Amino acid sequence: MTFEALGLSDEVLRAVNDSGYTDPTPIQRDAIPVVLMGRDVLGCAQTGTGKTASFTLPMIDILASGQAKARMPRSLILEPTRELAAQVADNFTKYTAYQNLNFALLIGGERMGDQQRALDRGVDVLIATPGRLLDLYERGNILLSDCKILVIDEADRMLDMGFIPDIERIVGLLPRMRQTLFFSATMPPAIRKLADAFLINPKEITVAPPASPAATVAQHKVVVAERDKREALRTLIKQEEVTNAIIFCNRKRDVDILVKSLTRHKFDCAGLHGDMAQPARMATLEKFRDGEVRLLVASDVAARGLDIPRVGHVFNFDVPVNAEDYIHRIGRTGRAGRSGRAFTLVSPDDNRLLGAVEAMLGQTIEEIDLPNMASVDMSEGEGDSHGRGRGRSGGASKPRGRGERSAPREATPEPEVVTAPTEQAPAEPERQAAPSRQRERGRGGSRRSEQAPAASSAPASPRAPREEPQRHGRRDDVRDGSLGFGDNEVPAFFLQRSIAPRPSSEASESA
Ligand code: AMP
Questions:
Q1: Pairing of strands 217-223, 366-367
Q2: Which atom of ligand 1 is nearest to the CA of 46?
Q3: How far is the CA of 179 from the centre of ligand 1 (A)?
Q4: Number of separate domains in the chain
Q5: Which of 227, 160, 182 is nearest to 35 (CA)?
Q6: What pTM was estimated for this model as a whole?
Q7: Does the beta carbon of 47 sit less than 6 angstroms from any atom of ligand 1?
Q8: Comparing 109-118, 230-239, 294-303, 430-439, which segment has the lowest mean pLDDT?
Q9: 306 and 356 both lie in a single domain
């Protein structure tokens, strides 16, 4: 099936063509005609499936064929993180190249004044994170009563991050007569319940996850004593003729130590973790993206959400604490059909974590040997890599020549996946969910025919902005003790492309 067959306008088709898309993805093929018909959608799809275009493209055509009332926003896209919101805004800009539609990107961490001014000028679409949207609403900057298309994206992540009360409140501020498009990568019972409350007779569309990086990335592990990891990494970087790579550490302090060590050995590298100031993080990312820095040493917070194309290699300096982070890490390479290579340094202390990763992959990662590296006995570890400070297995090491395989190891112990607690939203009385009018409405009935009463209620008096970062803390942030980077900051290149001219200095980036 072609894009032409989906019922999109010529203007949108031109923009799609400019984007280089030839065929619609399965979610686009199934969702676009349904959205154009005005029907609710319950999409079970994750990032990488083309789901953003599946709701943005038909939304553009619906908006282009209608008219704004008093320049009020007519559509609202809710995203759990600033990065995702900025990414959607970027897409929106691209797809509206031939249409006269505009949007406001309402995310925390950016100056409210700019967002207020954009709203004052009048916009067709709001692309927002829940906290900032409610802040602006409460300050009286937004009228949501003409928002007739609502997109709730990444609903399961919203749930993880404690945003559901905010979402319920926001939904209560929208007209009942609206079209709702609800997307989630997974459909646990809590999400299903929410979908039942928000949607009316939705078309359910489920698409397979994109090809797992496990299929497109050649994965290897190197068993090495903890104290030899840096040397092993340097050997690998040289041996692999690395063009560019992301090197993941489990801890922020190890990022700094490794950057110093690599720099001392004349490798071109930079660190990225949550303790760095935002302008410095953005500048580092830009340099890596532009090829000015070849090696990016990062904590897990950098692993998610960032679209950095053409990363040739990923090195796991440590086995990740959460097995699922392994997939996110190696997914930084081997993107868009390109091949990638991932190497994981494994010390005996990592035994249990490695077991969890391999159990999740359903395969054993192929082991390779490095020349002149002391061999280690995996059975000597305690099966828990938390004990970094204690004695290593080096005592039993013996030199192993190039190509010489290590002795067979003991069977991997029963894996234990370490899961850090999910941060809960603080219990603020004013943030409690308004009674869900959608729930009262019942299911499968007629279309909404009245405004939700809350839409007419006067905005609350101004108050201090919400602390979005508190609620954006992610499991990996909590786990390694670093504060969120990934979900709270927008990489400079997203912002630069979507809403602002390319800043000339760090100062302007942070403004
Ligand atoms: P998404 O799942 O919306 O995050 O999209 C994942 C990536 O796929 C983005 O980089 C899109 O630009 C790209 N993409 C979306 N639709 C198509 C398509 N029909 N053909 C090729 N690439 C696409």
A1: parallel
A2: 2
A3: 23
A4: 3
A5: 182
A6: 0.58
A7: yes
A8: 430-439
A9: yes
Q: Which residues pair with 42 in a beta bridge?
A: 182, 204
Q: Is the CB of 50 under 6 A from ligand 1?
A: yes
60/50 Cα distance (integer angstroms): 16
Residue having the nearest C-alpha atom to atom 13 of ligand 1:
50
Q: Ligand 1, atom 8: nearest CA belongs to which residue?
A: 50
Backbone angles phi, psi at 217, to 5 degrees: -115, 130
The answer as to whether 268 is a domain residue is yes
CA-wise closest residue to 386 among 474, 479, 475 = 479
Residue 24, ligand 1, Cβ within 6 A: yes
Question: How remote is the CA of residue 53 from the centroid of ligand 1, in Å?
Answer: 7
Q: Are residues 327 and 180 in the same domain?
A: no
259/305 same-domain check: yes
157 and 20 co-located in one domain:
yes
Beta bridge partners, 217, equal 340
Residue 73 Cβ contacting ligand 1 at under 6 Å: no
Cα-to-centroid distance, 126 and ligand 1 (Å): 21
Cα dist from 54 to 88, 92, 198, 245, 459, whole Å = 12, 12, 19, 32, 33
What would the pLDDT profile of 127-162 be if each residue is shown by its tens digit?
999 999 999 999 999 999 999 999 999 998 899 889
**Cα torsion for 241, 245, 249, 255, to the nearest 10°?**
100
Output the residue whose Cα is nearest ligand 1's atom 12. 50
- Tell whether 168 is covered by a domain: yes
Write out the residue range of the structural domain in which residue 327 sits. 217-395
Q: Which tens digit of pLDDT belongs to each residue from 184-196? A: 988 889 999 999 9
Same domain, 277 and 134: no
